[in-house]
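Query structure, 264 tokens:
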């Protein structure tokens, strides 16, 4: 098991930089954030648990799961994750906090109605359903989460994690162009933003590199990571497409990429 960064660090690891399209290089959507004693995972697309192990984190070490929305490439390993938590070596020392947008509690109970006791970790699970109020903020033990609705599906949320020392990371989830995301991301240390397709292939509900760059520029973020790449992104220079609208520090995500932020 890899230990968490010190209390003055916020560490971000891209667990999955891909989509629903199977890939040997890119797992589906998932991001790990580590701060203090907390291991936060945002989305659990297929491949998440393997990438967690490669990052040195056990299933039982994950303290919080946050879901941007309910599509399978973002939630596909929730059921296996809960099932694996019943294995004796994965028994938790403290509760798993499971979070999502409007309808999330019902989403979980619908899964439980199908899988029954196989995902029943009652007594070790806390459910949190966020509303669709822009700027809604929740204080957890050791960090704060702010959420805002974004333009993808009715339950879609973007998340902003802020440490007590003031470091902040925004995870966009899936979204189209979004004033809410710009407001949430203002002056963030890091924006992890979906950029699903090249500029020439823009579709409703998703961003392209230049759209993501425009959001980052308007929000004055200190660093931008593009992620959630469909295979079409591998055939064009998406870095330069983003440079049309954003001139700041820019990284193209790949699985197991880790970024550490100083929080002092």
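Result returned for the query:
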């Amino acid at each position: 098991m890899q230990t968490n960064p010190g209390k003055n660090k916020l560490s971000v690891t891209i667990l999955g930089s891909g989509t629903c399209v199977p890939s040997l290089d890119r797992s589906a959507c998932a991001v790990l954030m580590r701060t203090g004693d907390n291991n936060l995972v945002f989305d659990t697309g297929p491949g998440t648990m393997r990438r967690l192990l490669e990052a040195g984190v056990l299933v039982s070490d994950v303290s919080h799961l946050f879901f941007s929305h309910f599509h399978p490439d973002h939630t596909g390993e929730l059921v296996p994750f809960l099932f694996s938590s019943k294995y004796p070596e994965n028994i938790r020392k403290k509760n798993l906090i499971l979070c999502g947008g409007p309808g999330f509690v019902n989403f979980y109970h619908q899964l439980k109605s199908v899988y029954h006791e196989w995902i029943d970790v009652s007594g070790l699970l806390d459910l949190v359903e966020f509303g669709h109020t822009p700027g809604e903020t929740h204080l957890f033990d050791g960090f704060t989460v702010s959420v805002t609705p974004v333009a993808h599906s009715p339950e879609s949320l973007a998340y902003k994690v802020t440490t007590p020392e003031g470091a902040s990371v925004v995870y966009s989830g899936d979204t189209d162009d979004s004033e809410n995301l710009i407001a949430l991301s203002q002056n963030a240390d890091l924006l992890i933003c979906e950029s699903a397709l090249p500029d020439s292939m823009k579709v409703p509900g998703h961003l392209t590199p230049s759209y993501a760059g425009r959001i980052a520029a308007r929000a004055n973020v200190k660093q931008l990571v593009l992620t959630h790449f469909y295979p079409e992104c591998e055939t064009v220079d998406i870095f330069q497409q983003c440079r049309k609208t954003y001139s700041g520090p820019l990284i193209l995500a790949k699985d197991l990429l880790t970024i550490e932020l100083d929080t002092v």
